[in-house]
Amino acid sequence: MSSDDLNPTRKKILDATWKLLEANPARVVPMSEIAKTSGISRQAVYLHFPTRAELLIAVTRYTGDQLKVDELLAPSRAAETGEARLAAYIDFWATFIPQIYGVMKALLVMRDSDEAARAAWDDRMAAFREGCEAAVKALKRDGQLRAGLTVPVATDLLWTWMSVRNWENLTIDCGWPQSRYRKLMQETARQLLMA
Amino acid sequence: MSSDDLNPTRKKILDATWKLLEANPARVVPMSEIAKTSGISRQAVYLHFPTRAELLIAVTRYTGDQLKVDELLAPSRAAETGEARLAAYIDFWATFIPQIYGVMKALLVMRDSDEAARAAWDDRMAAFREGCEAAVKALKRDGQLRAGLTVPVATDLLWTWMSVRNWENLTIDCGWPQSRYRKLMQETARQLLMA
DNA sequence: CCTTCGCTTGACACAGTGTCAAGTTGACAG
DNA sequence: CTGTCAACTTGACACTGTGTCAAGCGAAGG
Fold this sequence. Notes:
The structure is a homodimer. The longest helix of chain A has 30 residues, at 82-111. Chain A starts with 7 loop residues before the first helix and ends with a helix. The model of chain A has no long low-confidence stretch (mean pLDDT 95). Chain A is mainly α. Chain A is 77% helix and 0% strand. Chain A has helices at residues 8-23, 31-38, 42-48, 52-66, 69-78, 82-111, 115-141, 151-161, 164-173, 178-193. The interface between A and B is medium-sized, with 27 and 27 residues. Chain A binds a DNA duplex through helix 3.
């Protein structure tokens, strides 16, 4: 869908932005630097993306398309049991986060000061949340959901526990290798949600 | 200790900043607004706090002093069993976070762009982490720590799970009332850490 | 040949941080 | 009473970054 926007200049900008954000997720990359890296004038960037927020949002969609999210999600969707679905979803997410972290972080930083960025972030998070909810519902269906947990509350828990910020906290701040993150997320999500 | 800095102008600035941050945690409050609210010229603020980061750091210390953290921590420190210590610590934290959220959020926003803010945040978080570690060690001592968890890993888990960002996520984004947050933190921390 | 589209160049307004210099005011010491 | 000093004020400035505007340029296509 959004891959139709294959305008070469636009693509150059998106690629440059992605690259810069991935290289330095914490820093707020100025538009001038994005322009320079794209090999394009600063104004041309504004011609394609009227504001910084719109550029970030477009990059978010772009990375999603490039990474073929739907394919990565297939195993989770195909899972028979709730338990398997949860495991597959966590696996997907643990693979996915590191690849989009730079872009998501940039969006997250803007979220506090920009309405459009907030909406874009919330939209992405809502999609992620749906995945969590589907897993939780599958658990519930199989009678595996821990006593005392309703579907929405369990979804909140899972969604929060697997959030980008927690990934950041555990891998970047605590220095966990990706493998440990993956393993412990599997284990702890079970502890949190299952009977 | 830092309460000795009872210089009235300084205090006015700290109070105004605290108030403004608490009133609107997300927004980046400009120095000019802090000055106006303090009833003082913008330059005078810079006379007391050379940079925005130093002001935020001072406010963080100030709020800690005002809220008598040590007193609030007493029940946790006095706990006999590991389980009681964990429960008391979570209780402390669930009471404490909402009161410092505005200030911590401001520090968190600056953390990504300012070295001093990063250091201040990390310092506060290290203190919080020590509390987590003490609780985890008490659990370990009592043989209550879940099999397969080492003290540092369990500390990372607890610390991450109880983080300011997760509080923000659950109460502000998910809309949980404070009571539910407290109750579920107690419950889930057990699930995560205990045998 | 002339238009139009996509881009460039260079200017500008605006907000916010941090700096600087000169002036005011009030307290306190001699 | 006078002089001094510290704390504060006023008003300017430089700098960075966003977003806007207007004029120009070059190549593709009617």
